[in-house]
Amino acid sequence: MRKVRFVEPGKLYRMIKEELDAAYFEVMERGDLIDRGQLRSFEENLARFVGTKYAVGLNSGYDALHMSLRAAGIGPGDEVIVPAHTFVATCSAVVNVGATPVLVDVGKDFNIACDLIEEAVTPRTRAVIPVHLSGWMADMVRVMEIARRHDLIVIEDACQSLGSSMIDPATGERRMAGAWGLTGCWSFYPFKILGGYGDGGAITTDDPEVALFARRMRYNGEDRETGEYHGHGFTCLLDNLQAAFLDVKLRYLPRWIERRKGIAARYREALSDLPDLLLPHYDDPRRDHVYQNYTLRAKQGNDFSEYLKANGIEVLTQFRKPYYRHEALKLKDRGFPETEAISREVCSLPMNVEIDDADIDYVIAVVRRFYGR
Ligand SMILES: Cc1ncc(COP(=O)(O)O)c(C=O)c1O
């Protein structure tokens, strides 16, 4: 039986092997291991790509969220609004600074339902973390309006949406995900649109104080020039070696995004006549989907995803069990109907730059066969 992997990191490596190998040998031969030129170069290139003044490399997307909350001074007694449908780390970062997460349901596009944000605001609300899921931004125009009205700090969880954008009505120009809030939080987990070869993350920001705070705190609070400790910090610096790899891959990102869009268009063309599928194509020309994931909803839930797996196709079904239903997390389930429906129906089809068109055609054929077409 044909096998279609969800991602094939080895194949992607072979596509750009020469450049990755050169980056590796440069780091090894120079002994550039911690906080060296490769990290600075990647940070500059990432900031330029996102359109912010600064980028600070960290160890993971979780660290980016955690550091952002600390930089904003959020802690015990504060409430932070987060979506009910997201990766658990969005919420865990809030809990781990001692604040209280307040969950809000999402809309049909998997992102926070802006209509529901205001009813979750209380006098204790300090911040909101919109998550840009799967490569499609939350409606940041509305999030920023609401935040202004209630004096909330905005921290963007952009871990799944590097390269996506929305037109900013203030300028009429595209503004990238991660360039709207106090910080944009990034993950370079291997299977992300820009993935390293281990954990990695970053924040982007226009605020020099926030950038300085993160630069110090990622390295035990130390100012590396003076040796002065500016607080009790952490060890969560982006590896120099990872930065060198990410810098190579970042150069390819624009053309890789085009390839992803091409695959999404192919899925759309071949599957949009199937009434039991909701495909991830949304009617908002202001926003640009970069398809970190091609996440659809299938009425048949597990029967659909299991059929694909039985036919050799790796799919993701994140998340069949919403994070607030995990007892140990002790979170309040205020009733999130859209998140519940999504959790039953969600299925991400293979979407990556290394996949062959023949594999995409096979996925399409299996999906159509499931529906007897
Ligand atoms: C939406 C979202 N937030 C946060 C994270 C956390 O990133 P990391 O795994 O790098 O800590 C991820 C990725 O795993 C994510 O997808």
Provide structural commentary.
The chain has 373 residues and is an alpha/beta fold. The protein has 2 domains: 237 residues, Aspartate Aminotransferase, domain 2 (3-Layer(aba) Sandwich), CATH 3.40.640.10; 119 residues, Alpha-Beta Complex (Aspartate Aminotransferase, domain 1), CATH 3.90.1150.10. The chain is 39% helix and 15% strand. The chain has 12 helices and 13 strands. Strand 4, helix 7 and strand 5 form a beta-alpha-beta unit. The radius of gyration is 21 Å and the shape is globular. The mean pLDDT is 98. The structure holds pyridoxal-5'-phosphate (PLP). Pyridoxal-5'-phosphate binds next to helix 4 and helix 5.
SSE order and pairing:
Blueprint: H1 9-15, H2 17-30, H3 37-50, E1 54-58, H4 61-71, E2 79-83, H5 89-96, E3 100-104, H6 114-120, E4 125-128, H7 140-150, E5 153-157, E6 165-168, E7 173-176, E8 183-187, E9 201-205, H8 208-217, H9 240-271, E10 277-278, E11 287-288, E12 294-298, H10 301-310, H11 337-345, E13 346-349, H12 357-370
Helix pairs in contact: 2-9, 3-9, 4-5, 9-12
The structure holds pyridoxal-5'-phosphate.
